[in-house]
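A reminder before we start the practical. When you read a complex entry, don't treat the lines as separate problems. The point of joint prediction is that each chain is placed relative to the others, so the output describes one connected object in space. Small molecules and nucleic acid strands, if listed, are placed in the same frame. In the example below there are two entries. Take a minute to note the order of the lines before looking further.
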Amino acid sequence: MKTAARTVFKTDWFTVDALPQMGQKPYYRLTCNDSAVVVAQTVKGEVIFIRQFRQALGKFKLELPAGEINPGESPKEAARRELLEETGYNCRSLHLVGRFHVSPDRINSSVYCFFAKEARKMKANPRADLEIRVVPIPAGRFAQRIRDSWESISVSSVGFYQMAKIKGFLQ
Amino acid sequence: MKTAARTVFKTDWFTVDALPQMGQKPYYRLTCNDSAVVVAQTVKGEVIFIRQFRQALGKFKLELPAGEINPGESPKEAARRELLEETGYNCRSLHLVGRFHVSPDRINSSVYCFFAKEARKMKANPRADLEIRVVPIPAGRFAQRIRDSWESISVSSVGFYQMAKIKGFLQ
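Here is the predicted structure of the whole assembly.
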């Protein structure tokens, strides 16, 4: 960065930083921990989405499994852990799709997107307290399922799915 | 909302709100103005992307034209204005693709996505102070151009592009 950022507000999950701008009010951005998101394909060819309640919106959203990378954890380890915690699925191998930004206008953190190959159900249910419903979507019915979930689909998850497809991981 | 949000930090562009949680620290979310994003197709069949510097990241990103909805402005008016301001293109008509959320884990605001039909260059250059480069991408070469811009592409823009496609606006 060319200019020094100054933290003006802090929570356990993010800070608000002010970036000085010549002759203007500062530019405010959020800095969070980086996170990992997983496009996991099951042995049957489905991609695993989850339906979860999002407190920030007060709404249920259909999204890919994802979460923050813990201190000392690699992005890949975080991807495997989040997949297992949120869906009960494990996978044979994980491949980096890319490192992306979701809200480049406001949030200064990266999202590492992984493709998980040959995902298999290991646990009957994910942690009950997470209140997450697992929604496996057959790759061939993706567009139809998105049309059916138009109000609740996360547009970033559609973007990550598409990136995995463009990279050649999904047909 | 079931619980009352309390504003704990405020800028001209967003507020940080704390949502009380039983027996836990509050959940912090951002509330911004809603915004509009445009998937604009030119009369030649290209989709208009822009390359712009994002201060929050200190990087250039390839994105769809977008911006905040001003007070008193409809989402559609904002879409037309942002398209013209950022790219110099006007369009024959605008069609709502949908109302989406980009960072459902943290940001409480909606993004109205529009498809702009028959976009035509009206002005030689967008406002010079915005430092935006217009990047028209032929629909048939979208995947290749994304692969070429892997480091800088906005994953949400890929999501919006895909939503316009699933809705049938783009082939």
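Discuss with your neighbour: Chain A touches chain B through 55 residues (CB under 8 Å). What might explain this?
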